[in-house]
Amino acid sequence: MVNKHTIIVLVSIAVIVSSLGYSSLNLVSANGLKFKWASKSFDFTSVMYGGNLETCNNSDYPASFAKYEFTIFYDSKPLGKFTSSGISIPPHSKGIVNGKFTADDRQVAQIFFSFLDTEIQGTDVNRVDANKMRVTTSLDYTIIGVVPFSTIHEYSGQEFLDMMNENTKCNKMSDILVIQNARLEGPGTLGESFQSDGFHLDVVFAKKEKIPALDHTVVLVLGAPESANDNLEYLKNEMSLIRQASEKNIPVLGICLGSQLMAKAFGANVYAGPIKEIGFYDDIRVDSAPKLFEGINSPFSVFHWHGDTFDIPKNATRLAYSGLYNQAFHVDSAVGLQFHLEVTKQDITSWLENTTEDLSKIPYIDPIMIQNQIDQNLPLVQNNMKLFYRNFKSAFRL
After folding, report:
1. Same domain, yes or no, for 151 and 233?
2. Is residue 169, in this structure, part of any structural domain at all?
3. Rounded to the nearest 5 degrees, what angle is found at the Cα of 343, between the Cα atoms of 338 and 347?
4. pTM for this structure?
5. From first to last of its 398 residues, what are the pLDDT tens digits of the chain?
6. CATH number at residue 27
7. Domain check: are 159 and 239 in the same one?
8. Residue 369 Cα to chain centre, angstroms
9. Same-domain status, 155 and 282
10. Is 315 in the same domain as 389?
11. Exposure string (b/e) for 257-278, b if CB count within 10 Å is 16 or more?
12. Which domain holds residue 15?
């Protein structure tokens, strides 16, 4: 028979073990917290007036802390410190904490911060040396609920500025849902770029596989020989997916057939164009939304392989056009590109090899010329892909 003393000991052990377990998890999750300035941009002068910090918990466990503080030094002398309140943050969530700035001499701090900001921005090279600036951060929390503990880090002024302005994801979604509509039309260099940035590609072959529940960072809808007007169930499902992603404000990028499905999903007409566009073209002109095409010359080079085209949906903005066609548009979080930037040499070669008979029936398309143009023109297209990818990530804060 277990006596009262044994029960008390066992309960005490259980409480200690559970407290240690919780503290260990909090130690891990709190150490992984990311902090950034909650307003649009951070500079050191703005610290003077206090403000809010956005705190991001990307771990699978809750995180809590009692205080977050950073102290700004110049040439090893403290200029002042910013101290925020504590908070408890659920897994894969963010919280906002308010903080205040204190300094022994606010006027001196303000002068230095003003000089440092202009020096870092490259507009002042004489008055202060930004390399002498250091910032130490301290995150305070408790172990087993009673033992105080602090984690301290040190940054250069530029490193801290970058951290405070960083776009930080605070959710668990890190997969890119790729809807592949044809065996030979994959995500190409676009998929490679996402993977190199740490995203996982969740590739679904739409003709044979069911579209999963939408719990993704981005949706890509790729091309295929079919028409958006074909009465096919899987294409209808893709149009529903596009609308659902847009309603959830999840970025969705449609390429070729994907853009035509997107146009139809938002109520626009899709129809056969006057001629098929197949091959390298240098005729895409930017119409609006320069951020998505920032750094890309207008007109710019793309690879085409389409016969159908689309009208611009209501409430959408045309982004690019050519002499005959609308070529790109966006509506809310959805972007449609009728052209290909993501193609590889292997893609183009395989498309040409597998459509020899069809292409022979189009007198104005020369497959041999297209093949011979690859080495010269593909680098231009792929460079435009890199620029578009950078802009797309920036526009949607990925």
Report:
1. no
2. no
3. 120
4. 0.60
5. 555 555 554 444 444 444 444 444 555 567 778 888 887 678 888 888 888 888 888 777 788 888 999 999 998 999 999 999 888 888 877 888 889 999 999 888 888 888 877 776 665 555 678 788 899 999 888 765 567 778 899 998 888 888 888 765 555 546 899 999 998 899 999 999 988 887 888 899 999 899 988 888 899 999 999 999 999 999 999 999 999 999 988 999 999 999 999 999 999 999 999 999 999 999 999 987 678 998 898 899 999 999 999 999 999 999 999 988 999 999 999 999 999 999 999 999 999 999 999 999 999 999 999 999 999 999 999 999 999 999 998 888 87
6. 2.60.40
7. no
8. 37
9. no
10. yes
11. bbbbbbbbbbebebeeeeebbb
12. 4-164
Token pair in block for residue 23: 């503290």
Does 341 fall in a domain? yes
Distance CA(207)–CA(182), nearest Å, equals: 8
Give me the half-sphere count of Cα atoms (radius 13 Å) on the Cβ side of residue 356: 5
Measured over the CA atoms of residue 309, residue 334, residue 172 and residue 170, the dihedral's sign is: positive
Judge if 237 and 340 occupy the same domain. Answer: yes
Residue 379: asked if its preceding bond is cis (omega within 30°), the reply is no
The DSSP bridge partners found for residue 320 are 286, 328
Distance CA 22, CA 144 (A): 8
Residue type for position 253: L
Mapping DSSP to helix (H, G, I), strand (E, B) and coil, where does residue 5 land? helix
Query: Which of 142, 164, 186 is a domain's end point?
Result: 164
